[in-house]
Design brief:
4 domains; 18 helices; 76% helix; mainly alpha
């Protein structure tokens, strides 16, 4: 009965290995149970049913493995046949290619169900035939394989030594996993080995890794239990204050994240359980978020209207708290900015039009001066008409310089004089740009010859209008 209990335990371990994706370890346990049952002779029906189920599992994975790898082995066989049909002139190149194909074959045997006897015999015969053109190079490759075997022996000893040094107190799970990964990569780099060494080394390598894998599994199981207990703690949170519940959950969540891995297969399941246990805390927040998203949707639609109140919309936006990091909130902010810019552009366009039409208001009696500066409007009502052409030219060039428009080359001297003057005014801080533009427009109006604009004055005013176009935000 004790033997039967041990066999049941072995089959349970095999099932866990299958679930964890450790197929070779599981199959090894199933084979051991099979041998023991044969030695025992008569066993209970319950044990036999359990064994039959696990044996079927083993065969299933063998079939899957064969299904995936047999086509690859057949491809290798075809490559060898092609090499036999057209061998390389250089024996070293021929040997290297055979060496590469043998490496591929052995790696398939190591990572899946070994090749069938018939397939192996075919591969062996073809390999021997492919070797014939490079017999002189065979000894050198044999030495490489022997050297590879020696290096693999060292890796096995490194694994054994690691287990001996750490069995009293194993390092962290991540450190052990990295160590196994690193040694596996090194192991893979020392292939192929002689056929007679391959199985022996493979078994020794797996046995050497086993204590470390067991330690990793133990730690993962321990972490699994810790995470399960933390999930149960979340389920017990029951404060009346939702925010208090959320804060407690966040603290437990940090402990959960610090607990360490619980196995690749378990992690997504546990993480889902953790968050599902806390969903009830966030239901109120979710309702608020959904309401705010509806508000954002309505505000975005309201912005499409020309007569909407941007002030009211901004006040509504200031009351949104839960959705400030959402893409919908960000898009609403961009839409508000775009609406404001559109309004500013409209205001500026209207203002530019008014300023470009200033000379149509000379000697005006209309008191409605719209957006024109009061001092400019006074000048328009009673212009001085000094008829100073030089002053008109200076006003034009200076406004162009403010608007960063290059005056004609014929006015180079005027430009230099005015540029120096503007630099001095900038450092002295006598005027701001708005005042300067205002004074230039007044000066231009007062230095016209009469209400009837001449062709020369019209040409200068056209240049003034181009500068005004670029100075929308600085017009007085």
């Amino acid at each position: 009965m004790e033997t039967h209990k041990i066999l049941f335990e072995s089959l349970d371990k095999a099932e866990k290995h299958f679930e964890a994706g450790e197929i070779r370890l599981a199959q090894k346990l199933v084979n051991e149970v099979s041998r023991t049952m044969k030695a025992e002779g008569k066993v209970s029906n319950k044990l036999r049913h359990r064994f039959n189920f696990m044996s079927a599992q083993s065969r299933y994975f063998n079939d899957i493995s064969s299904f995936a790898t047999n086509p690859k082995r057949n491809e290798i066989i075809k490559e060898i046949e092609a090499l036999i049909a057209e061998p390389h002139e250089n024996p070293k190149k021929q040997a290297n290619e055979i060496h590469g194909l043998q490496t591929k074959w052995q790696l398939l045997d190591q990572t899946s169900k070994p090749a069938g006897r018939e397939q192996w015999i075919t591969f062996k015969k073809l390999t021997d035939k492919a070797w014939e053109p490079c017999a002189q190079y065979y000894e050198e490759l044999k030495n490489i394989k022997i050297s590879n075997a020696q290096e693999r022996e060292k890796i096995i000893q490194t694994l054994i030594q690691y287990s001996n040094d750490n069995s009293d107190k194993w390092p962290g799970l991540i450190e052990m996993s990295k160590f196994l990964s690193k040694t596996f990569q090194t192991w893979q780099s020392y292939a192929p080995v002689l056929d007679e060494d391959f199985s022996k080394l493979k078994t020794a390598y797996q046995d050497a890794r086993k204590p470390i894998n067991n330690a990793i599994n133990d730690q993962e199981n321990k972490n699994h239990k810790i995470k399960e207990s933390l999930i149960e703690k979340v389920k017990l949170i029951n404060d009346e204050d939702t925010q208090a519940c959320i804060q407690k959950f966040k603290k437990i969540k940090r402990d959960y994240q610090d607990a360490g891995p619980a196995g690749k297969k378990n992690e997504p399941i546990l993480w889902k359980k953790l968050n599902q246990a806390a969903d009830r805390f966030f239901e109120a927040d979710k309702a608020i978020i959904n309401n705010e998203l509806e508000v954002i949707k309505d505000l975005t639609a309201e912005l499409q209207s020309e007569d909407c109140s941007i002030k009211d919309i901004k006040n509504s936006v200031s009351e949104l708290n839960k959705t400030r990091k959402s893409p919908e909130f960000s898009n609403l902010q961009k839409a508000i900015k775009a609406y404001e810019n559109k309004k500013i552009d409209k205001i500026n366009a209207d203002k530019i039009k008014v300023y470009q039409d200033l000379l149509t208001l000379l000697e005006t009696a209309d008191e409605n001066h719209l957006s024109i500066h009061n001092e400019i409007f006074k000048a328009l009502k009673k212009p001085l008409y000094t008829g100073n052409k030089d002053k008109l030219q200076e006003c034009t060039v200076k406004l162009e310089l403010i608007a960063k428009i290059e005056p004609p080359d014929t006015e180079k001297i005027i430009k230099q004089k005015l540029a120096l003057q503007m630099l001095q005014e900038k450092f002295s801080g006598i005027k701001n740009t708005n005042d300067e533009i205002k004074d230039l427009l007044i000066a231009f109006i007062n230095n016209l010859k009469s209400k009837k604009i001449s062709a020369a004055e019209t040409k200068l005013w056209k240049r003034m209008c181009e500068a005004i176009q670029k100075l929308a935000n600085q017009l007085p």
